[in-house]
């Protein structure tokens, strides 16, 4: 069979069982830029037909997924295709915007290569996506991690501008230490500690204790 015939046969085979699986089944083309198949559950969540999804091409990602999260999962998908190993799979969390409402819903997705061509090149990638109940404790924890990742990406340059000593002072502030206590702990004068406090607030562009805590948590100072 030609590669195209293999693709159609594999999709037809998968379609016979896809709708009884607990998650959404998605089949993507060789470079994962276009959806070739999606199970009924997924189409229902997105409020679209398969021809509509297929016709979107790469716009599918912009329409239904949070673009800020692409930094997290795109490298994994690229690695998957480069390894081209049928036994290798990658997993990642995604925020999916359904067609039923405008808010994002958290999903856990797992992908692997489904079919290779005669020359061994990837032809199809399969992705199984499972919605996570928004009221579960797992969803809350994952959302917190996703928020921290977004904060990291948005503020990495500012944090990188801090000196080692300023980071130590920031960590102490977020642990509730006073300037006098920091001076003793870091073997500095009170005046030097106050200078570091002023400088780090200027560099991070905040006077908010909450935002300082965000920096400390996101960049593993606590």
From TrEMBL:
- State if Cell division is listed as a keyword: no
InterPro entries, A to Z = Sig_transdc_resp-reg_C-effctor, Tscrpt_reg_LuxR_C, WH-like_DNA-bd_sf
On the tree of life, the source organism's domain of life is Bacteria
Kindly list the biological process annotations in GO that this record carries.
regulation of DNA-templated transcription
Q: Which UniProt keywords apply?
A: DNA-binding, Transcription, Transcription regulation
Answer whether the UniProt record assigns the keyword Metal-binding to this protein. no
Q: Write one Gene Ontology MF term.
A: DNA binding
Q: Which residues form the HTH luxR-type domain?
A: 155-220
What is the name attached to this protein's record?
Helix-turn-helix transcriptional regulator
| Species per Swiss-Prot/TrEMBL record | Hymenobacter amundsenii
């Amino acid at each position: 069979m030609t590669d195209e015939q293999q693709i159609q046969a594999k999709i037809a085979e998968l379609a016979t069982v896809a709708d009884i699986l607990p998650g959404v089944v998605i089949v993507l083309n060789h470079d994962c830029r276009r959806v070739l198949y999606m199970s009924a559950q997924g189409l229902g969540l997105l409020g679209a037909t398969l021809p509509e999804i297929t016709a979107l091409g790469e716009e599918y990602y912009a329409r239904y997924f949070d673009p800020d999260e692409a930094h997290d999962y795109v490298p994994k998908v690229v690695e998957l295709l480069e390894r081209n190993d049928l036994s290798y799979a990658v997993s990642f969390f995604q925020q999916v915007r359904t067609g039923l409402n405008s808010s994002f819903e958290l999903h856990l997705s797992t992908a692997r290569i489904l079919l290779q061509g005669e020359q061994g090149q990837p032809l199809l990638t399969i992705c199984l996506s499972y919605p996570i109940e928004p009221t579960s404790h797992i969803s809350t924890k994952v959302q917190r991690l996703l928020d921290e990742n977004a904060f990291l990406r948005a503020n990495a340059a500012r944090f990188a501008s801090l000196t080692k000593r300023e980071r130590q002072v920031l960590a102490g502030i977020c642990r509730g230490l006073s300037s006098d206590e920091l001076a003793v702990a870091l073997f500095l004068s009170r005046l030097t500690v106050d200078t570091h406090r002023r400088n780090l607030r200027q560099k991070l562009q905040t006077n908010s204790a909450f935002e300082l805590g965000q920096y400390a948590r996101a960049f593993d100072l606590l």
